[in-house]
Amino acid sequence: MNSPAGIQAHGVRRAFGQVRAVDGVDLVASPGRVTALIGPNGSGKTTLLLVLAGLLVPDAGTVTVAGYDPVTQGVEARRRTGWMPDVFGTWDSLTCREVLTTVAAAYRLPREAGAARAAELLTLVHLDEFADAPAHVLSRGQKQRLGLARALVHDPDVLLLDEPASGLDPRSRVDLREQVRSLAAQGKTVLISSHVLTELDEIADDAVFLSRGRTAATRTVTAAAAQRRPWRITSLDPDALRDWLAANGHVVSTGSTTGDGGGGAVLVHLDGDAAAAALLRAAVTDGIPISSIAPAGGVLEQAYLELEEERR
Ligand SMILES: Nc1ncnc2c1ncn2[C@@H]1O[C@H](COP(=O)(O)OP(=O)(O)OP(=O)(O)O)[C@@H](O)[C@H]1O
Ligand SMILES: [Mg+2]
């Protein structure tokens, strides 16, 4: 059998007629880490996830999920894979609890264990009060949460989450973040697609960027944070700040793609967190009344925008 855990995908291709939805993707996602799958609409994220989930057969390439090939070892692979689609299919007549016990039965969990697991997961995703309500009455965000519970029923090693945060309110997003981090802490491999990048900074360890069906870049979030990106600085004395920055060789920009210099703020490109800390220290030492300094936009958002820029 294949031993590498997590997800390994090499040279994966899948076309729909003339459309090359996935056109050469290489991706590795490791156990205990959260990997973000990032790309614009139509870049092939869902198609790739369907291939990894064993729901679409690739035209070319090799894939292993939890050590198994989803095509030739589908049963083994699916037993270890939890799949959360971007839209929860409605099983109109079933209650939330029945959705989960039905999935448990499909994975051959004994009835008692399935019932216990369903109850535990309904609590985890805060749907206790809807346990015996038909799933189709749930709001969009509640359906998303039921979708996550459904993906976790059989305690899979690998989780494939397609836009799991879409439709979630702020509280539920925080919950999702904590749930995903806790799953990774248990040693699971989590692959999570999104184009809402700001919230991925705090969830993901690694990022794979897709563009037109291909892997455009692979980064760790730590490495992305160390890259040159814009920081937004405000001072009680904006003129003094500008003069000081100019005197210290910083090029100041106001107005950009990542937030303009509203409220007297200036944007300065800095080489990561350490450079920002050094600038703050020096400015304060020189008596500049700095009132705030923060990255303008998220780490992954910046990495993404730079990739887009390169392609123009
Ligand atoms: N079943 C299908 N039949 C035909 N074309 C398809 C099919 N599924 C996807 N495509 C096409 O493949 C490309 C990739 O689609 P995919 O859904 O994988 O993108 P995505 O990255 O998930 O986008 P989004 O961010 O909008 O969810 C698109 O051009 C899409 O139109
Ligand atoms: Mg999609």
Topology:
Elements: E1 7-16, E2 19-29, E3 34-38, H1 45-52, E4 60-65, H2 74-79, E5 81-84, H3 96-106, H4 111-124, H5 140-152, E6 158-162, H6 170-185, E7 189-194, E8 206-211, E9 214-220, H7 221-225, E10 228-235, H8 238-247, E11 252-253, E12 266-271, H9 272-285, E13 290-295, H10 299-311
Parallel strand pairs: 3-7, 3-8, 5-6, 6-7
Antiparallel strand pairs: 1-2, 1-4, 8-9, 10-12, 10-13, 11-12
CATH class of the largest domain: Alpha Beta
What topology, given as strand order, has the largest sheet? 5-6-7-3-8-9
> N- to C-terminal separation?
44 Å
- Average of pLDDT: 89
Annotation field: number of helices = 10
What fraction of the residues are assigned to beta strands by DSSP? 25-35%
CATH architecture of the largest domain: 3-Layer(aba) Sandwich
The CATH homologous superfamily of the largest domain corresponds to P-loop containing nucleotide triphosphate hydrolases
Ligand types: adenosine-5'-triphosphate, magnesium ion
Shape: globular
Q: Tally of extended strands? A: 13
> Structural class per helix/strand content?
alpha/beta
H/E series, N to C? EEEHEHEHHHEHEEEHEHEEHEH
CATH topology descriptor of the largest domain: Rossmann fold
Helix percent band: 25-40%
Give a written overview of the molecule.
- With 312 residues, this protein is of the alpha/beta class.
- It folds into two domains: 7-223, Rossmann fold (3-Layer(aba) Sandwich), CATH 3.40.50.300; 226-310, Alpha-Beta Plaits, CATH 3.30.70.
- It is built from ten helices and 13 strands.
- It has helices spanning 45-52, 74-79, 96-106, 111-124, 140-152, 170-185, 221-225, 238-247, 272-285, 299-311; strands spanning 7-16, 19-29, 34-38, 60-65, 81-84, 158-162, 189-194, 206-211, 214-220, 228-235, 252-253, 266-271, 290-295.
- The strands form three sheets. A six-stranded mixed sheet has the order 5-6-7-3-8-9, with helices on both faces. It has a four-stranded antiparallel sheet with strand order 11-12-10-13. A three-stranded antiparallel sheet has the order 2-1-4, covered by helices on one side.
- A hairpin with a 2-residue loop joins strand 8 (206-211) and strand 9 (214-220).
- The longest helix has 16 residues, at 170-185.
- The chain is globular.
- The model is unreliable at 255-261 (pLDDT under 50).
- The site of magnesium ion has 4 residues, from helix 1.
